[in-house]
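Submission checklist for the structure archive. All mandatory fields must be present; incomplete records are returned to the submitter.

[x] Identifier: TonB-dependent receptor
[x] Organism: Leptospira haakeii
[x] Residue count: 157
[x] Sequence attached
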Amino acid sequence: MGSRVSFFISLSIHTVLFLSYYLIRSLNTQNFSEQIKLTLSKGQIPSLHFSLPKSLGEGPDASSNSGLAGTPEAEIERFKNEIHFPPEALEQRLESDCSWEVVIGPNGAARNITTIKPCKYKVFESQFRRSISSWKFQLPEGNIIIIPVSFRIESDE
């Protein structure tokens, strides 16, 4: 590679870094030097450290995410997102719609699970009971919720 090409590549990289630094700095009014730190020591490999202020990078607060946070509806959705489709049902391409009534017990544990709409296949009932046995709801003791679950195989057809 010629010296002109090397110089041009080096100049381009430095220009991009320089412009990025000032662009990011202009977007953030906090002390930018605390967020990026380049350490150079004689005889050592240079190290570059990035850090974000504690308030950045954590995402929005769950309570500000939705008006449903902390409600039975939100807890039902949170639980339904954790139920896994049983592999043996997937192999056989089984599907079913089911629903259960659950009474929330001490420490958010499920207590008194009653089947409202039975599953077509026992494998789904087993999966639901296995999932709910270790789940902790963030609802007060004594709340009664109904959890409908559709075990469906999504296809692009």
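[x] Structure attached
Curator remark: The chain is about 35% helix and 20% strand. The domain at 62-151 is CATH 3.30.2420.10 (TolA/TonB C-terminal domain).
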